[in-house]
Amino acid sequence: MTTATRVYLARLADIAIYDPNGDQVGRVRDTVARLRLSPPPRVIGLVAEIQARRRIFVPIGRVTSLDPDAVVLSTGTLNLRRFEKRPGEILVLEDLLDRRVSIVQPGDSGPQRAATVVDVAMEQQRTGDWTLARVAVREHTGRLTRRGQLLQLDWSEVSGLVGVPEAQGAANLLAVLDKMRAADVANVMQDLSGRRRMELVAALEDDRLADVLEELPEDDQVEILAALDKERAADILEEMDPDDAADLLAELPLAEREELFGLMEPDEANPVRQLMIYRPGTSGSVMTSEPVILSPDTTVAEALAAIREPQLAPAIAAQVFVCRPPTATPTGRYLGMVHFQRLLREPPSELVGGVVANDIDPIPAETPLLEVTRLMATYDLIAMPVVDSSDRLVGAVTVDDVLDQLLPPDWRDRDHA
After folding, report:
1. Are 224 and 318 in the same domain?
2. Greatest CA span in the chain, whole angstroms?
3. pLDDT of residue 166
4. Cβ of 53: how many Cβ atoms within 10 Å?
């Protein structure tokens, strides 16, 4: 084990785990401790996420090194059975972070001081065992404009660490998850209890929650959306990609769907409504209606600036589609597309209309997905343009749209991973 004898566990979240040969086997998602008759709890292992989004248990005895950048194991042989928390066990990040507690230091007089857990440290004992010996808490001041003092206390000096809390909050859990991809946050969310999940949902910003919802199984999406007040649910749908919002709304009863449409801004609702008219299993049913669309008199410099937008998914930013005005779907006549690699090879002042590629025919919105997949594989395309009967661009099918359809329907569900 590393020479460090105290490790704050929120800092371990998302750290890579390596076998003795230096090959990465997964990432840390939480720490498991077992309650005892005499506190503090004993740390028994880590929850690791490996390939296929599977979470497994790694005994703490297998860990030979802990540092801010990596966890190293003594063996690459691991039990791949899915982790399930047992009675008497606690997960540090899920169960303790943000918990409302009381400070009970000896010698304090008067009422107990309220605080919130911001981190928990494990310490190695002389026996070699690791225990949850220290708790970092922030005192409540009762004043909105002043942050309370941050204290590091022994486990025994904090009450309320065990049992189901009335309310837990999610500020510090959010800080841990902030560095994770939306797909990884969705995996974490699937493992949280219903109460803890909704605390996290309430704390997430609308745009971040929209990104996470897109990575969850449909059942979880519907459950979360139904738990939100209708105004916020409509705001979340506006932040989602139109094709993902259309898929989610299609799972709702007609009356609820129309209510949410009524609360959405018309400019956000109309593309979603349009996508829902296409038959399932066609290019129109899975395409995005908001690819990067430019007019032919746009310069290469302007095109590169357009695809640099950080909110664009890589598959969307890989190319621009060139159309006659208007450049919102449905556009004017479709002219062709330009891949970003071609843009990088052209002078910044060159017009995209002069470098457009039109050797790949666009597809109608009624094209079966199997045919779309064949065409994209044949021509090594990241995205395929979709047009209507008047040769106007109405959207684009991207490679991630195709993958979503090729995988089993429950591929996002951790229970079936």
Report:
1. no
2. 82
3. 63
4. 16
User: Which is nearest to 405 in space by CA: 379, 371, 380?
Assistant: 371
Torsion sign (Cα): 194, 199, 204, 205 = positive
DSSP letter for each residue of 107-136: T--SSPEEEEEEEEEEEE-TTS-EEEEEEE
Q: Are 248 and 225 in contact (CB under 8 A)?
A: yes
Better-scored residue on pLDDT, 66 or 363: 363
3-state helix/strand/coil string of 324-360: CCCCCCCCCEEEEEEEHHHHHHCCCCCEHHHCCECCC
- Tell me the per-residue pLDDT of 40-55, one tens digit each, with 9 for 90 and over: 999 999 999 998 778 9
pLDDT above 90 for 172: no
Question: Which residue type, as a one-letter code, is found at position 144?
Answer: L
Can you give the CATH number for the domain in which 21 is found? 2.30.30.240
Question: Rounded to two decimals, what is the model's pTM?
Answer: 0.77
Based on the domain organization, do 265 and 305 belong to the same domain?
A: no
Residue 300 near residue 349 (C-beta atoms within 8 A): yes
Q: Are 300 and 209 within one domain? A: no
- Domain CATH code at residue 319: 3.10.580.10
* Alpha carbons 51 and 328: distance in angstroms, whole number: 39
Same domain, 270 and 309: no
